[in-house]
Design brief:
The protein has about 475 residues and is of the alpha/beta class. The protein has a domain of about 260 residues: Type I PLP-dependent aspartate aminotransferase-like (Major domain) (Aspartate Aminotransferase, domain 2, 3-Layer(aba) Sandwich). A hairpin with a 2-residue loop joins β10 and β11. α1 runs parallel beside α2. It is globular, with a radius of gyration of 25 Å. The structure holds pyridoxal-5'-phosphate (PLP). Pyridoxal-5'-phosphate binds next to α5.
Length: about 475
């Protein structure tokens, strides 16, 4: 028998305070709290549903409604909390969508999401060991493992930081202290013209003038030109200007180019210059026996930034600063923590970097890497490179300038357009792509706007890549109208 049209629907959710389940403000130390358990289950239910239907929403929601923001006089019941949460979720960027390929923000690795929840629940503090006994050790050991695997040597180690910008800043602060250039306003930092903006930001924080940053020209592949670097270092030395550090980039932000790390390291070694490698994008390739050759020379750095949040899907934030001589961290940042028990190892977490109180971000990195295994890491990296190659193959016949490197990033812009024409084209084409639920970004590179695809999303398939190529092909001026 068919259902009549007026069949009863599921009962409407009841929000009267009397009917609502209760939620304790703090976990009960005496018993397993069924209300709390139900609340956390509902919250993870909601999250799993958000993931599960994310292909039906746009990668970038355009309209969204925010719930009330300021706390009311009385606190909300759990159902109201979850409803409000849902509104914010509905307006969130959607990294799980197969068309999400704009930035270095992949879908989250599932074990890392669980570890993030546990991290919040443990509410430990990496500031000091008595506030994070097991987690401090986990961080120290995982940093040492990662550093050794990346070739920094058996003594190497490091510290977790809330993002690559902070890792880069700490590296340069350490380099300055190690090179005894603390008061030197004339000290210089050399990096490729395509280096990340966080290097300039770091120098500003360090109180150095903008002229302290010396960009070195890149070649046609977006890699720092070593002969140019050598000439600029010679000139600095002739002018009596000290060098604070050379920063090489392993994976530039627009195209994923890898500076020639070995030759740069040799140059730095010969002149006793600190070499920092910004491997926020590329260093993870050094974890893979299959792909390590792409970042050959990584291990010759004095310091190295790694951002597992960018391609491996460790939930944000996840960045490490690794050093060949990790004691340099404490010798730079330690002030003593007179209100804490002494460290059981060399130094407290809060004495190895700029951050004081910080969450145990290592937990989601550790669990995520354990979930992947070395073979899983290989697969994530290989998949990303393959998708970039597939898209490149699809775009190659078109009259585009393709900017890539060996990794998973590909930027492109039509040949022969002026800067304003390229800006226009990039805006319109990004819009067309978004209409098909394909999200690319629009970097300004070498004076002209490009579209950029970052192929780190494992859900992006041939269908999306072909759709990108179709939209881009349709966006290009007909051949006869090209100048
Ligand atoms: C993303 C990025 C950074 C900065 O990392 P955040 O985590 O965003 O602070 C530094 N260097 C490079 C090359 C990057 O791509």
């Amino acid at each position: 028998m068919g259902e009549p049209c007026g069949a009863p629907l599921a009962p409407a959710p009841q929000h009267e305070p009397a009917a609502a389940p209760s939620l304790p403000l703090f976990p009960d130390p005496e018993r397993l709290d069924a209300d709390l358990l139900a609340f956390l289950k509902q919250a993870s239910d909601q999250l799993c549903r958000w993931w599960g239907d994310s292909s039906q929403r746009s990668p970038l929601p355009l309209l969204s409604v925010l719930p009330e923001v300021a706390p009311a006089a009385d606190g909300l019941d759990p159902l109201a909390l979850l409803d409000d949460l849902q509104l914010v979720m509905d307006g969130a960027f959607n990294p799980v969508h197969p068309g999400s390929m704009a930035h270095l923000d992949p879908p989250p690795l599932t074990a890392s999401v669980a570890a993030d929840l546990i991290c919040a629940g443990l509410n430990n503090n990496l500031l000091a060991e008595e506030l994070s006994p097991s987690l401090s050790r986990l961080e120290r050991i995982l940093c040492a493992w990662m550093a050794e695997r990346l070739g920094l040597g058996a003594q190497a180690g490091g510290v977790a930081a809330s993002g690559g910008s902070l890792s880069n800043l700490m590296a340069l602060v350490v380099a300055r202290q190690q090179r005894q250039l603390l008061g030197a306003q004339e000290a210089l930092v050399f990096c490729s013209a395509d280096a990340h903006v966080s290097i300039a930001k770091a120098l500003a924080v360090m109180g150095l003038p903008p002229s302290a940053l010396r960009p070195v020209a890149v070649d046609g592949g977006g890699c720092l030109q070593v002969d140019q670097l050598a000439a600029q270092l010679d000139a600095a030395s002739a002018a009596g200007q000290p060098v604070l550090a050379v920063v090489a980039t392993a994976g530039t932000t627009v195209r994923g180019a890898i500076d020639p790390l070995g030759p740069i390291a040799a140059l730095c070694r010969a002149r006793q210059i600190w070499l920092h490698v910004d491997g926020a994008i590329g260093a993870v390739f050094g974890l893979s026996s299959q792909h390590a050759a792409l970042v050959q020379g990584l291990g010759r750095a004095d310091s190295l930034t790694v951002n597992p949040q960018k391609l491996l899907g460790i939930t944000k934030t996840s960045s490490l600063l690794l050093l060949r001589q990790p004691d340099a961290l404490a010798s730079c940042f330690a002030t003593g923590l007179p209100y804490m028990e002494p460290s059981w190892a060399e130094a407290h977490g809060g004495e190895c970097g700029l951050q004081g109180t910080r969450p145990a971000e290592v937990l989601k990195l550790w669990l995520g890497l354990r979930q992947l295994g070395l073979n899983g890491i290989d697969q994530v990296l290989s998949g990303a490179i393959e998708r970039r190659q597939q898209l490149q193959t699809l775009l190659e016949p078109l009259p585009l300038e393709l900017r890539s490197g060996p990794l998973h990033l590909l930027a492109f812009t039509p040949r022969h357009l002026s800067a304003p024409e390229a800006e226009n084209w990039s805006q319109q084409t990004r819009h067309r792509l978004l209409e098909r639920q394909l999200m690319l970004s629009r970097p300004l590179y070498q004076g002209r706007h490009h579209l950029k695809a970052v192929l780190g999303n494992p859900h992006t398939g041939v269908a999306q890549l072909e759709a990108v190529a179709d939209v881009v092909a349709a966006s290009l001026p007909a051949p006869q109208s090209l100048r």
